Amino acid sequence: MQFMKQICMWCCAGALLAGAASCSDLEEAGGSRHPGAEVKLVASADGFTPQTESRTQVGGIAANGALQIEWAPGDRIGVFGPEGSNLPFVNAGTQPSSVATFESESNAAVTPQYVYYPYSQEATDPMAVPVSIPAEQTYADESSVAQYDIKAADVLADEGSGTYSLQFRQMAALVRFEIDLSGVSSLASDERLREITVSREDASVPMAGEFTYSLASLDAGLQPGERPANYITLSFANPPAVSEKITAYAVVAPGAHEGKEWQCVFSTDRHQVTFRTTALCDFEAGRYYTVPLNVFILENNDATFEEIDDSLDPEEETANCYVVTAPGEYDFKATVIGNGEKGIIKGAGFHTENPYINPKSAKVLWSDKANFVSDVRLENGRVHYTVPESVAVNGIISGNAVIAVYSEPDCQGEILWSWHIWGTNAGMQDEVYTNQAGATFTVLDRELGASRPGNGGTLYQWGRKDPIPNTDVTRYFLDGTTLTEINTNFGWAKVLIDNATIEDAIRHPMELVAGGATQATQHNWLGVFNPYLWGDAGRELPEDLRDPKAGAGWNQQKTIYDPSPVGYRVANIFTFSGFTDMPSGSTRLVYDEDGDIDVAGRLEHINYVKGKSYWYFMKNADDTEGTYYQDIRSRDGYMGYEKKNAGSGGYWWAAEAYQGEDGKAYACYLNTDSYKPGSVVAGSTSGNVINTYGRDKTLLRDAYAVRCVREE
């Protein structure tokens, strides 16, 4: 299946471009059909489970310039018989190919009369097959074209024994944008191209919208229906720098455009460029038409450049965690990792300096409630999912899930990235803490992943983005259908990897990463320590938390590995210092006059309202209510199971990590021990009632809680 090349360059003001005075002659009609191929239809075969997400995919570029479209495994075609049935047939092949064998999904007998692609349950009349060409399309690479592919067979040959050969033709056309903006002086080389819109003032010939076509008269082409659009907008899933030479495709409806005035508008992250021109060709089905965008075109068509005010059209914010507070349908951008380009610290040893990915499929990896999310699918570079009404209790939802995207269709290949879906009640609030240096931090009132204050939340290895469940029994989902319950008293999944990399962590979002069998003493999950993962490295650490240096913010920006939702980040190391008035930030080993550990003295140095197994720390000197911190378990990153602090205090990560003078990696945290009235000591002689400034080399592989703080 090919789209044949058709040259259709812009008409410049005052003169035609050389060689573009008219459209080139159409190539042979065979180019718009399956090239010498036959597709066998085995109507008597057993059925297959529908794979509705599969679509044809782009193959290579032929020697004659044609863009080849291949059948993908799981592709479904629709078949009408004389009795008017519309039955799905599925591609039984396991590899992309130009020729495929389709088998019936049921045992229903049918004599093929009309065949079309892609299959649709809504197609009830072969004389009016409905199709949709979206006016707004997303482009990642050539394979993006396949999701809009429309074709039908107008030739059927009975080969005998229930086998029929089919010959398909394309029903749509393509616009091929050849973009080279490197010589445009008004654009900076590091600007990124976001989208292109082409439109014509005359709306009588729609470029997109709803259409129908008759399988009995394919030459009549697409007939306009509802929501006609006189434009096409192509958004870039991976926005390229304007210094790059790129080619991109958009699908359009065939139609008469020759001699009509078009407007072209393209935008970067800093400019909007507009010009008018004249189309030199009509669009025919099965052809693609080349539209150049370069300095010559812009200069000869009097293009205007306007700076973009991002406050009027802000770019969509992305993160590794998305909060949902009510049942409904949701979606997020799946072509950007973490918080995007601004989350990459250049030269800091991240796994990439390009925040864009091109996923081909998506699914749920796990959730801690049955059916917490459903109907997960990848469309136009976005993951769509549903939080059903059934998970709500009195209108309130709670739960956590992880959705991953893959490098190949049908959730094959590598996991490219994964996101945490955090279901929490709508009463989530910010609280303002004042620390010992007088600085303020705006902090969420619950742990990341908790449905309400005091409800546990999820746990994280230091520097990683993926949550680990914090429940006694976790419901674990594969493909959203197979349910396995894991008793976490016996351990959460872990993977032993010698000298683990950041990529290893990305590929294993369901496991704690630990050093390999030969590295049982490795306390850092990462083989080569990197203190920049959560963006707070290289700090001079004052011993006195009243020092103005202890009132400072983060040393670097929020990073692509930060697990927090949009607008938040992992707490700064100084966020919690106001919970105690000890200049060291710790009540570790407070002694009385006799040199004994003073239990009361330790408590006297804590700014708390009340506490037993739970603490209500004062947010500031005038606070009479307190902020709630429960005892919260952590998990051993090497063994995979619950640590000994379960039910006795808790740990909360800070973003700070550093390499000590001893050459070992240290992570920073807030931790507490429970206070038991009447006991000889609070917690243990070696522990802390509270330590707001903890540092330890044994913690980086363990999984602790996170409190999210508003970005500055």
Structural notes for this entry:
By secondary structure, the chain is mainly β. The protein folds into two domains: about 1-315, no CATH class; about 320-710, no CATH class. The protein has three helices and 45 strands. Strands 2-7-6-5-8-11-12 form a seven-stranded mixed barrel. Strands 3-4-1-21-13-18 form a six-stranded mixed β-sheet. Strands 10-17-14-19-20-22 form a six-stranded mixed β-sheet, with no helix packed on it. β19 and β20 (about 270-280) form a beta hairpin. The longest helix is centred in the middle third of the chain and has 6 residues, at about 295-300. It is elongated. The two termini are about 55 Å apart. The relative contact order is 0.09. The model is unreliable at about 5-60 and about 475-490 (pLDDT under 50).
Give a quick precis of the structure.
The chain is built from three helices and 45 strands.
Which key terms come to mind for this protein?
single chain; 712 residues; mainly beta; 7-stranded mixed β-barrel; elongated
Sequence-ordered SSE layout with sheet pairings:
Layout: E1 2-7, E2 39-42, E3 57-61, E4 67-70, E5 76-80, E6 86-91, E7 101-104, E8 114-117, E9 129-133, E10 136-139, E11 151-160, E12 163-170, E13 173-180, E14 193-200, E15 209-213, E16 223-224, E17 231-236, E18 245-252, E19 261-268, E20 271-278, E21 287-294, H1 295-300, E22 304-307, E23 321-324, E24 328-333, E25 361-367, E26 374-379, E27 382-387, E28 399-408, E29 412-423, E30 430-434, E31 440-444, E32 460-461, E33 473-478, E34 482-487, E35 494-496, H2 502-507, E36 512-514, E37 568-570, H3 599-604, E38 608-611, E39 615-617, E40 627-629, E41 650-659, E42 665-672, E43 690-696, E44 703-704, E45 708-710
Parallel strand pairs: 1-21, 2-7, 10-17, 13-21, 23-29, 35-36
Antiparallel strand pairs: 1-4, 2-12, 3-4, 5-6, 5-8, 6-7, 8-11, 9-15, 11-12, 13-18, 14-17, 14-19, 15-16, 19-20, 20-22, 24-27, 25-28, 26-27, 28-29, 30-31, 32-44, 33-34, 37-45, 38-39, 39-40, 41-42, 42-43
